[in-house]
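=== Structural record ===
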Amino acid sequence: MQEMQNITSMGHKDFRGGMPEWIRQLPIIRLKYRDFQLIEPDELEKMLEDVSEETKTRILEDIETLDKELLWMFRERDYQAKEQQNRYRSLQIGFMLLASLATLIGALQAVTLDAFPTWLPWFAFGETIVALFTTFIATVQGNRPPMQLWLMNRRRAEYLRREYFRYLADVPPYDKLQDSDRRRMLARRAADINRGVDPEDAG
């Protein structure tokens, strides 16, 4: 499951591969938008090797419909989730670095208090700069909370992923509908999910 998550997201399958997990979870400096598929073409080809031509045609048509009606929304939500995740983690690292810097400056003040009293104004200036940066980061985080945006976009992306495979597997609410009705229902439910509305509640 972890491997599939890495493949079917804006992250790269082998990105930071082999490194400790805490390193792999660090923010990505340059996050790129990728036109990935939820089912890799090679994997799809293997899965369809032993099915009838009729079934194969039906599945390929469904995937084409999903590409048009749903997948672009999933990619966008997945990208936004990853972007906000990066932003959240970057801000947390910033807070940790500033806290460490403030501690270091405070320690230097204590050590040099008697030996170099003329240095104290410079240390005080440094503490002020650290405090200003901390306030700035806290303000940025408060105006557009990255964690809330991360979770919101991730939740919608995962609901869209679920709808993708629900349609492909032809399970309720798609199982008893004709092709045109199935496509219309997919488009409606995908749009509802993308704007944060539960399609079950939308009717």
